[in-house]
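Tutorial handout. Part one gives the primary structure; part two gives the three-dimensional structure as C-alpha cells.
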Amino acid sequence: MDQKVQYNNAKYWQIGFFALNNTAANLYLGLMGYISYYANSIAGFGVVLISSILTALSVFDAVTDPTVGFLLDRTKGRFGKFRPFMLLGNLIMAVSAVLLYLTTHQVGRYIRVFYFVAVYALFVLGYTFQTVVAKSGQSILTDNPKQRPVSTYFDSLFLMAAYGGTAVFVGNYLVPKYGGFTNPQLFIEYVFWVAAVSLLCTVLAMIGIADKDRPEYIREQAGQQKIHIRDYWEIICHNKPIRMLIIAACTDKFAATVYSHTTVGVMLYGILMDNYAISGLIGVVTAVPTLFVVSAGIHVAQRMGQKKALVLFTTLGIVFQSMMFAVLMQENINTVSFSLKKINGITLLFVGVFILLNGCKSITNNMVVPMIADCSDYERYRSGKFVPGLMGAAFSFVDKVFAALGTAFVGVVMLVMGYNRRLPQIGDAVTPELKWTTLFLHCVVPIIGWICSLASMRYYTLDQNKMHEIAQELHQGKRKGRLREKRKEWKENHTKRRSR
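Part two.
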C-alpha cells in the first residue's frame, strides 16, 4: 500500500536534527527542575510559597499555548513558519534563565517575589514558543508512517543524553564542587552551560527543518486557508483522536512530573539509596542497553503502527514499574554501587529493571510527539484545515496543566510530610514515612497514570490502516489541487496571449 502513495519523506539526518529542538527545550526544563532548591536555599522562599508560585506559573505557561499556536498557524513569513519561533523562544529562555539565577537573590526582599514571578513568566513565554514547534513541526517534516516513529528514537537518544549528561554534571561535578544546592555559584555555572548547549541544539534543529519550512511548501499544505479563533473550538470538538491522545499523554505527564521531580530524586538517590551520584551515573551506565529497548519499540511502531506500540510499552511499563517497587523495598537498596569492587546482586537487579523500565518510559513519553502529527493529518483529512500549531498548542496546553498539577502534588505531599520550611536534603535520615512516600511518588503514581492512559487509548482510532487511508486521500487531493492550479495558470496565460 505504501507504493501507491508518494509520501513527503525526510532524510534521517533531518529527522535527527529537528529532534534537537525538543532537546533544547528540555535542557531548560531540566535546569528549572532545580528552581525549587534555588528559590528555597538561595532566594529564601518557603516551600509552600515556592510550590504555589510554580503551580501558578505552570498554569500561565499552559494558557500561553493557544495564543502562540494561533500565531504559528497564521505565520507565513519569508523565514518559514517554524524557525522564527524556535530561535526567538530559545533566546528568550536564555536571557530570562540567566536573570533568574544570577539576580533574584540579589534583589531586595520586599520585591523579590514579584521580580521572580516576572522573570519566570518571561521564561515561560520563550519555552512556549519552542515547545509548540516541537509538538507541531513533525506535520511538515514527514508524513510517512514508517519514518514518523523514527523521531521517537532520536528524541529518546537525545533526551537520555541531555538528562543523563546533566544529571552527571550536577551530581558528580557541580554538587561536589560547590558543596550542594546552597551555593549560588552552582546555579550560575549550570545556567550558562545550559544556555550554550541549548542554543547549539536549536541552530541544528533549524537546519534540519529548513528544507521543509519554506513558504512555497507551507502554501502547498495549507492552501489559501484563513484560520480564525472560532475554528479552534470546532476542531477540538470534532477531532476525537487528538482528545484521546491528550488524555493519554496528560496522565503520563502528571506521573512523569512526579517521579522525575528533583525532590523525589533527592529522596530516592540521596536519602533512600544514600548515594546521590547514582542519579547521574545510572543514565550513562544504562544508555546503550536502553536504546536497544527503544529500538525494539520503533520496530514495533513501524510494523504495527504507533497506537499499538504505545499500548504495548505502556503495559510493559506497568509491569516493570511494579518490579522496581519490589526492588526498592529491599533492605540493602542502599548498597547499590557502580564501583567494580562493590557490585552486588541488588545492583545488578536494580540496573536490569531500570533498563527495561527506562526504555518503556522513553517510548511512551516520546511516541506521542509523532502521533500529534497523525492527528494533524487527520484534521486535514476531516476538514481540510492545516493547523499544526493548534494541534501542538492544544496538546501542550493540557500537558502543561497536568505538569503543574504534578508539581503542586509533590509540594502538597512534602507539606503533609512536614517539610514546610526546607526540602529533603542529601544525607537526611531514612524514616519509614520518607521511605513509603518515596515509593509512592516514584512507583505507584506512574502505574496509576499509565492505567488511565491505556483506558483512553481504547478510543483512539488512528491505527496503522487508518493512517494509510488518510495519507492516500491527502496525496490524491494534492494532485487534484496541483492540476487545478495548472489549468488556472494555463487559462490565465491563454487569455493574456489572446488579448495581445
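Part three, for discussion. Residues 11-470 form a domain with the Growth Hormone; Chain: A; fold (CATH 1.20.1250.20). The chain has one domain: 11-470.
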